[in-house]
Every structure is written in C-alpha cells, then in structure tokens.
What we know:
35% of the residues lie in helices and 9% in strands. By secondary structure, the protein is of the alpha/beta class. It has two domains: 9-161 and 172-381, no CATH class; 386-453, no CATH class. It comes from Fusarium oligoseptatum.
Amino acid sequence: MAPTEFHFFPSLPSELRRDIYLLATPPRVVETTVNPIKLDSSLKYFAFNWRHLIPSKNKQPTLESFGFTNSRPLIPPWEPSPSTPEIPLDWLSEWPELAWHFARRNHMYSNAPIPALLHTCTESRLALVNMGYQLAFQTRSSGPRTWFNFNRDILLIGPEPQEDDSSDDESTIDGSPPVELFWILSGDSLWDLGQFDPGDMRQVRKLAIRYGAEQIREFNHSPNPVGDSLRELSSTLQLFTRVEQLLLVEWCAGDLTTAAAKDELGAEHRRRHAYDTNGLWSCTDVAEVDGLLRIFSPEPSCTRYSVAGGSNNCLLSDHKIAHGNEASYFEDTHDAIRGSLAKEMARFISTEMTDIVIPWKIPQLRTIHILSPLEYRALSQERLKVAQHICDLQEEWGSIVRLRTEKSLSPWEWNLVKRDFEETNWPEDNHRLNADGGRCSWSDVMQKMWWVQEGPAPGVGDLLL
C-alpha cells in the first residue's frame, strides 16, 4: 500500500503498538559486575561446592563442649542436613578468606544500555514489563539493579580476575585444598558465580561465557576431555540449571583493535545517555575463516589468536581430513560436548549421596564472537576478503591441476609448475623443521597448502544478534 497517509502512533491498534515496542527493543548481551555478617539462606543452593570443606562436628569444638549453654539458641539460616551442613561461625572466623565469600556485602550492576522504551511512556514501559523485562540479579545483601529479559537477553559471565598467588602458604583445612580457592561457591567453574541469586540463576535461558571458546580447543585436544575441560562447564550448568543455549565466546568487544581504530572504538563506545543503543553488542558465529585470518591476511584484524580451531587452525583441518571437507567442526564438537555433558551429569547424580540433586538441562551450544557494531563490520570485511583470496587461490590451483592432465606433464615438469605456484603464493620456508628435526606438519605454510590444494571454501559466519 502506498504511504499516502500518516497514522499517528497513539491511533494504531494496541497489538500493533506492542509489536512496534518489541521490534524497537533488540535483545542485548548483559554482563554483570560485582562491586566490591550474616549468612543468607540462599547459600545452601551452592552447598555441593562447599560442604566438603566444612569440618565434622567431632573435630570442631563448640561452646557446649566447654559447658556453656544458651536459653535462646541461634536460628540457623537453614535446617542442617548431610547435603547442606551447618557452617560454624567460629570456623569461619578462623578463615576470613572463606568468610568473605559467604558474608560479603555487595551489589551487581551492568553497563548494558537500558531499553529506552522502559522510560519513554507508561504504555511502552508496561508493554516491555509484560513481555518479561524486569530488574534482576540481586545479591544476598542488595536488591536487583539490572534490567533483563530472561527470554530474550543473554547473560555474559567472565573469568574471575587472578589474584596475586606469590605466597607460598599451603595451609589447609583438615587436609582439604588450600583456602585461597575463590571458587568455594562456584565449584569447578572458572567463573565467579557465588554472588548470583539462585532464583535468577534458574531463570537464565541464554548464557554466554567470555573466552569460553577455549573449551572447544581443550575438548578436541585433551586426551581426557570429560575430566579436564568439561568439568568447568558441568559445574556451571549445575547452578544455571535451565539454560537452553550456552554460548562459548571467543573474541569480545575490544579485541579487534587493529581492524577498528582505537579512537573510532572510543567514539562509538562513548554513549550519549544510559539508554543509548548505538553501540549495542552483536553476536556472530565463529567461522572457519576466523582461524585463517592470521595466516592469509598481511594485517590480521584481531589482537588475539583464534583458539577454537587449535594452533594454526590445525584441529579444524584435522577434523575435515578425518571426516570429509563437508563436516562441520563446530557443530560436530558441540554435539560431542553435549553428549559428554549428559554423561557427566549422569555420573554425578549416580555418585551423589545426598537427596537434593536436581538434574540440569543439557543446552544447545554455539561458539560466537561478541563485538561492537564497528568491530563486526570490520571483521565481516576481513572475512570476505580472506575467503575470496582463498577461493581465488583454490581456483588457480584447480586450473594448474587440470593443466597437468590436459598436457600430460612429466613428473619433472609438474614439480616445476607446482613449486612455482607455491613459491609465488607462500614464499616462506615450506620445509620448516621441528626441534627434533622432523617436518612441522601444521606450520602456517602447511596450513596454506592444505586449504588451497585440498580444503573447502571456508565459511564466513552468520550474525546472530
């Protein structure tokens, strides 16, 4: 229909206005930050991570053992049981490093742009609230402060900052591991999860792990992936029990500083107000070509190597050699990880002696980058340029192979033609040796040779968000 008439927004049907509000509020990637004594009952949700550190009562002296009594006993935050034992406060007083994690006061906040329509008018605010937007991520000492839609938004968690571990103190608690374990509430997870509220954790549907793509490499590289790389993921899913989509992040906003000038990035990230969505982060699948940018591009776009495909992309190449060029390295790895996570969950449930084990979902996996719009545009251009360059080389190599057949080149003539092509396109020393004198099978040169002479056209990825 020709736009001959302008309809005032308030005159539109309420259903249409609601759809417009939804389309004008894109999903976000929300990263929460904890700013830097009373025990809260929600600590029992993390009990399977800390209960093995609690000393047994036959070793822990109490006031009662010295004859002291009290007519008004303390009210425990939960009913002690084998699965969630009592945490003795006098024991915590001996280990302030542990007490800090149990009793610290803090709140969570996020720098993610607030959906503007939450503060535009009463109707738009009610529409978004009815669609699921709410203040979320309270802590044990503070209320929720971050607007989040558990059905649409992605929660991004990152690694815990490494503290100075120069101390040689190897003190233990009754023979347990050293007390500097910052993951006492997070279990085997590498990420600080102990300050999240259990109710919020159970509502998260889309969870992204900063630099979690290293798990892809470790799973394919480790001889015992379930025991090594998957323990962290499994421990995380024990807490986020209803996650439907687990996103393993390789590159994050700020990593592509060579492709996008720092002053441009700074200008883009300089928000005009708290509701400015101009620099809203984008998600894109990690593509096969990402591991080849450093090899085929004279000026790689990223300051970080692509780790998901292995060193020099060798794990991805090995996978295609073993399963065919059409095999999807990432999809096959995701399926294998899901299977291993299911086995790990079954093993944990079968060996757990308590009665509170709640099976968690085995989510769908994706390996992604989370980038600013400027970085995503720069990466897309670099991907297309490198992919086209590889396709051109593959076409040129194909014509040389056909020439060999058509003109029946002798072995000597063929070696001359082949070597001329290789010296032209990868003049590096393609006879590089390992330290033991053997040929370096997966050097950059060997990777170039395989992708051009035997490999498929590399995929360039899709935009998810």
